[in-house]
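Anyone opening a protein record will find just a pair of labelled lines. With that in mind, the following record should read easily:
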Amino acid sequence: MASDTDTVSAGSGVGHAAPQPAGRVVTRFAPSPTGFLHIGGARTALFNWLYARHHGGTYLLRIEDTDRARSTDAAIDAIFDGLNWLGLGGDADPVFQFARSDRHAQVAQAMLDAGHAYRCYLTQEELAERRAKAQEERRPFRLQSEWRDADPATWPEGQPYVVRVKAPRDGETVIDDLVQGSITVQNAEIDDYVILRGDGTPTYMLAVVVDDHDMGVTHVIRGDDHINNAFRQLVIIRAMDAIEGGWADPAYGHIPLIHGADGAKLSKRHGALGVDAYRDEMGLLPEAVFNYLLRLGWGHGDEEIISREQAVEWFDIADVNKGASRFDLKKLLNLNGHYLREADDARLADLVAPRLAALVPGFDAARDRALLVSAMPVLKVRAADLNELAKGAVFLFAQRPLALDEKAQSLLTADARGILGNVIGRLSGESDWTAPVLEASLKAMAAELGVGLGKIAQPLRASLTGQATSPGIFDVLVLLGKEEALARLNDHAA
């Protein structure tokens, strides 16, 4: 096992069924606060949340902030913000790993005292020489430290050292992974990795194990890039169980990573990576992102639209695919369009208002909210995201004289402007300003003029909205109101 990121081949495990938990389930999501909440991390959080909810258990959060140089408060806030937006906040106050460094060191000392770890005085230069020799001889580097079995009495006091775990050399370790099936690693492949650095600070590998134990985590569900780590971490777990008892192996479920549509590992070139970008820049709804992430590698028959309640009821970790999922932005946007159409109009108006204020000078969310809410039923059926929804609402609040786009200008020919004059005369006499009445009136007018309704509707739409496309023209008339609609028509009539 050369490094933390090497891939271990899984056993066949096809069609395996996840064993039902014997006791209370405790899962955790443990991100490192070095940036935004990655979309892949959000899915890992979701699967942990669902597994705990499905089994009536507990879902916890841990911030793995031991990398002090890269961990930031802004990143921590962004992670919590993204999780809360998706409804994946923890069931208890989050644990901050760095604050538990003394506890981690305590476990390392217990392993030292019991002979399950050792002080290694090899210098960086000596290690580099051995790695170079292994490379020169074209063989994998396996640390064989002469300090592994040295008598503690021979440890040179005052010299720098690290603490390494004493990994087993013989036999094999088998993990019955809830997703990947049975995985076997020869113990000779597991290295004597460092658990305490030269400055006395714990490594990630030690801190994770201690925190999971102390938090009572029973199921570790995480990306399959951590499969190798599971075998290495079991060395600590089993050593501590031998020392003091009560350190049970967790159940592992390693879920495949998310790839782009081209099959390559998801990266910036495939689109947004952070949950905040899906919310802020792309204008997606949390329920749509929740539903889409749920379907990335997991499914329930042919169901595509799955509510939170159904997800909790149906989720089974055994149904997670073993292969990587492909991220499809078009599917996500289609799903978001569905949830937009289902969303409460007042909620949508509140979400759209800040975006609309950036598009329309003078827009006042408090003053204009009622009109925005009333427009939602006809606007949301034409939009895939909040940005499109905001753009679709611009015409309602635009100031006269209305700016016309190029297509709208082309529709307002001399003949069309003449028709608008007739329309103004017709609509000025209408006292019942409702869609059915206005539709009947203009259809009658079209018949009288011997033209199709489109000959009237197209210049009408252009002058009322400044665009060649809009919601139904009779809905537009009603939303604008008689006074504003006639004023806009007058601006462009012959």
